[in-house]
Amino acid sequence: MAKQGTGRVAKEAVIGLEEGVTRKCFIVTPIGSDASPTRRAADGLINAVMKPVLEKMGFETFVAHEIASPGSITRQVIEHIIYDDLVIANLSELNPNVMYELAVRHCVGLPIVVLAENGTRLPFDISDERTVFFQNDMYGAVDLGPRLEAAIEAALIGGEPDNPVYRVTQSRVLRESVEPDDAQAFLIRKLDYIESFIGEIKLRGVVPTPPSLPILNDAQLDFLVNIEDSDVDNVLIKEFLALMPGVTSVRSVNSESAKIAFIVSANREIEWSDIEVLEKHFKVQAKLLKKRAGTKSYYPKNRF
Fold first, then answer.
1. Which CATH number fits the domain that encloses residue 260?
2. Same domain, 225 and 293
3. Which tens digits make up the pLDDT trace of 170-183?
4. Domain boundary among 98, 130, 155
5. Which residue segment(s) compose the domain that 169 sits in?
6. pTM of the model
7. Contact 242, 250 (CB under 8 A)
């Protein structure tokens, strides 16, 4: 449980920074040698997309091959990964150093945004993680900018971390919190068996990666998000909602009371604080409603 508390408090500290205070973002990326195609692709993406977006959002950007401070580069990189307010990981080329640094950040439980070039086949243990895919060309850079900004906003919203390391530690806490012979323990053992079986199937390449199991101690909840403005990109809003922690699916629906509407399914309570971040980012007015258990009707959630 200490891990859960540490992650939550750390994220609240990141979100609670006063306006005007420069935040730090470390970019984890394949580097390659000077003038190599890997270096050119990495520097192009960083300079054309990442740095402009991060500067606009008040972040100071750090990259391993641009660190000029004296001392151990490895130590400085690890310090950035552990302590910076945000990490962006580019998994293109599936570089081993990038994978290692991603795992370190997952252990810390602080905000992270994962990118990958279209066509990248992610390893099975992170293949169901939220990833922003991009096309490595000039139009791809234009297209990635607003989607990266939305992903960063969603990552900074807060809530519990959502990564494989955190889910495993929480699963262990749950197993240790029940009596060994009761029905809940039996169910957990069965779920562990199913998860292991699915993992083996994925390793053999028999079936595509299934969605993650829901958090065991949370019920599935449905919410209706109405957007009252029509001159916004509903695709970007849908992607933003999908990147919120705990959200399992988002689908567009027709609504008589709103020009744009989405049904959001989640394994946690969606709060007005989440929707207010969306309103601020897209400069729109929204309404948040929650589905009544066992019915098809929704009731409005109070903003305050």
1. 3.30.70.100
2. yes
3. 666 555 555 555 55
4. 155
5. 164-204
6. 0.59
7. yes
